[in-house]
Amino acid sequence: MHLFYCPDIATTLTLPEEESRHCVKVLRLVEGDEIDIVDGQGTWHHARITMAHHKRCAVELVQSEARTPHWPHKIVVGIAPTKNIDRIEWMAEKCTEMGIDRIIPLQCHNSERKEVKTERLRKILVSAMKQSLKATLPQFDEMTPIMKVINMPFDGKRFICYCDMSLPRDQRKTFAQEYLPTEDALILIGPEGDFSPEEVSAALAAGFIPVTLGESRLRTETAAVQAVASCHTILQLNNG
Predict the structure, then answer these.
(1) Among 72, 155, 203, 226, which residue's CB has the most CB atoms within a 10 Å radius?
(2) E strand segments, 31-96
(3) Is the pTM above the cut of 0.90?
């Protein structure tokens, strides 16, 4: 299966230059060959190449079908990017492969990284979307202050994960027991130095549920992957 990404394929009937080059120069596909194309918005197209040009490969659409995500409710993760950006790139790739709707990079008091190259991250998400045979591309936000995320409207359950011994611990619940597969979920993961007491207090005051992901102290990116994996495991058990 040769799968390509083009957000406006239904109107342009032409692959972007990078995808055209991969199609024609790398895979050496020619006129008449059939390929699959996703638009990142939930539609899967089966197409036939009509002009095998390495800069603008033209196609005709043979069949199009809506492919909604296999998880029924939104999974949103807000995470403070690590100093080593490779670890966040890995996290974004793996969460996309499993299934996630939105990733929000958080600017926190203890953040070691002040910016992320969203264009590069989005390319990683596209690759992971195609690798996992999905038709919907997750949203990757620009760096966002934590307080803005805490106060933004969200129709679902909101969780904040932390492990710092100095932060309130008696209130924490187990995420896997609190997550409901019948509601959207927003999960906040703090920086390597964890959330500040003020950030945790603001989240709790706004209605966030304080949770733990288990007994082990996890790296930031591992915690995000663990949270998303827990969501999908619970969803599968609920549907099974």
Answers:
(1) 203
(2) 34-38, 43-51, 58-66, 75-79
(3) yes
d(CA 154, CA 108) in angstroms, rounded, equals 20
Residues 57 and 81 in one domain: no
For 44, 151, 160, the CA distances from 196, given in Å and listed in that order, are: 43, 16, 12
**In angstroms, rounded to a whole number, what is the distance separating the alpha carbons of residues 99 and 128?**
10
174 and 121 co-located in one domain: yes
- Best CA proximity match to 11, nearest among 35, 42, 45: 45
User: What CATH number did the domain enclosing 35 receive?
Assistant: 2.40.240.20
- Give residue 136's Cα distance to chain centre: 10
10 to each of 3, 59, 65, 215, 221, how far by Cα in Å? 15, 10, 12, 49, 36
- 159 confidence band (pLDDT: 50, 70, 90): very high
**Contact in structure between 82 and 109 (CB atoms under 8 Å):** no
Amino acid at 158: R
What is the phi/psi pair of residue 222, to 5°?
A: -65, -40
pLDDT in tens, 16-55: 999 999 999 999 999 999 999 999 999 999 999 999 999 9
Sign, CA dihedral 173-104-140-86, equals negative
- Give the whole-angstrom CA distance, residue 221 versus residue 223: 5
Angle at 102 between CA 94 and CA 98, to 5 degrees: 30
Q: Which of 159, 165, 177, 129 is nearest to 224 (CA)?
A: 159
Structure tokens at 103: 């990733």
- Phi and psi, residue 137, nearest 5°: -95, 130
Q: Which domain holds residue 32?
A: 3-66
